[in-house]
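REQUEST
  id: r-88c1
  op: predict_structure
  target: Molybdopterin molybdenumtransferase
  payload:
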Amino acid sequence: MDHDSLLEPSWADAHAAAYAAARPVPAERVPLVEAVGRVLAEPAVSLMDLPRSTTSAMDGWVVSGETGPWELVGSSLAGHPMRRALAPGTAAVIATGGVVPAGAFGVLRRELGSVRTADGRAWTEGDGPAWVHADPPADGPPAEPAAGSHVRPAGLEAAQADVLVAPGRVLTPPQVGLAAMAGNDGLTVHRPVTAALLVMGDEVRHDGLPGEGEVRDAFAPQLPHLARMLGLVTGPATFVADTLDAAVEAIRACEADVVLTTGGTAAGPADYLHRALTVLGAELVVDTVAMRPGHPVLLARLQDGRSLVGLPGNPLSAMAGVLTIVRPLALGLRGLPPVVLGRAVTAGAVGAPAHDSRLVPYVRVPDVDGLGGLLERDVAAGTTRGVLARPTAWLGSGMLRGLAGADGVLVVPPGGVQAGAVVPDLPLPW
Ligand SMILES: Nc1nc2c(c(=O)[nH]1)N[C@H]1C(S)=C(S)[C@@H](COP(=O)(O)OP(=O)(O)OC[C@H]3O[C@@H](n4cnc5c(N)ncnc54)[C@H](O)[C@@H]3O)O[C@H]1N2
Ligand code: MOO
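RESPONSE
  id: r-88c1
  status: 200
  body:
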C-alpha cells in the first residue's frame, strides 16, 4: 500500500480523530455498590435537602432561650426525634444527629453543662425534676449555648435537585457515598467498554528462548493489563496465524466493542490486516499517522459499528499506537473527556523526521543548565520544579527498554526541537 506522508494525518489530528470517532457506549442503571469506578452518564442529583432535617452536630442538650438553667423535658436522639416544639426555658437531651426541635436556641455540649436538681445538687435518675445548667469556664461567661450553636440546618450540604456529581467522570468512593446520603439507590453509568486482543504473527513464541527468526511475544503478557489501565474490560489475548482467512475469522469472532490487533499492519508478504479489513467491509478512519514510531497504526470501523485498532508489530510502535489511538478511543467510548497533554521542556536537542512527529520516551532530569524547565503536573502537585525531559536510550521501534524506564513520552514535532523547547508530554497510563 502506498501512503503519501503529506496526506497523512498529523499526530495531533490522528489523536483527536480517534477520540472523535468514538460514540459513548449506552448507559445503564446500577445499584450504588456497583457504581464506584464506573463512568457517570447522567448527573447525580440530591433527591432531598441534605441533611434532611435540622440536626445537632454534638451530644449535649438542645435548649430554648439564651440563658439557663433550663428544665429538662425530654430527648431527641438519632432515629427518635422530638416532634413537639421546645417551650422557652426548657431543654432536651440531644445526640449527634438528633433532630433539633422547633423553638430551639442552640445546643450546649455535654462537657460544658450539667444536670442538677432544683436545689443545685447533681441530678441522678429518679431525683424528680432536672435542670440543665451551662457551666461557665472559671475565667468568663458561658461560651455556649450561642444562637444556633452546633446546629446543622436542613439543606446545609445540598438542596433538593442540586447536581452533586456531573456526568463524564469515573465515580470515586466519596462521590458514591454522597449520592447515597442524598437519597439515591442507584446511578446511571455507561456500561463497561469491552476489548478483544488478537496477536498476529507466526514468528512469535509464547515462552522460552526464541529460535532463529523467532521473537518472544511482547504483547500477550502486557496488553490485557494495559487495556484495563485504559478502562477496557478484556480477557487474555488470542493468537492468530498469519493467513488472510485466520485474520478474517478471528476478527469476525470478536464480540467486543474494540478489537486490538498487533502486527500485520504493513504491506509485507505476511501482513494480512488491510486485506482482512477489505474482506470485512470495514471503513478506515485512520490509516497511517505522520509519526515515528508507530507510523502504520490504523483505526477502522467494522460494518457493525465496532472499532478495530491495528497496532504495528514492532513493540515500541505498538505502544505509540496505544497512546495515539487506543487511549483517546477508549476515553471517548467510555464517555470521558479527552486526554490532557502535559508540557515538558527538553534537556537537549531532539531530532525528528521532516514530516513526522516523533514519540520519544524520556526520563526527568534536574535542570542543571538553567533552561527553565518544569513539568506542569509537578507544579500542580506542588512538588518538583526545574525538571527537564531527556530522551532515554533504546529508542528503536523494535525496543521496549527505553519506554520501560521512562517517566513519560514526548511528542516532538516534525523537524525536531532544540534544547529548552516546550513539547507536549503524553502521560503514561501506568
Ligand atoms: N516496505 C516497508 N516495510 C515496512 C514499513 C514500510 O512502510 N514499508 N513500515 C515499517 C514500520 S514503520 C513498522 S512499525 C512495521 C510494522 O509492521 P507490521 O505491523 O506489519 O508487523 P509485523 O511485520 O508483523 O512485525 C514487525 C516487527 O515486529 C515484530 N513483532 C510482531 N509481533 C510481535 C510480538 N507479538 N512481539 C514482539 N515482536 C513482534 C516482528 O517480529 C517484526 O520484527 O513494518 C515496517 N516495515
Ligand atoms: O512506525 Mo515504525 O514504527 O517507524 O517502526
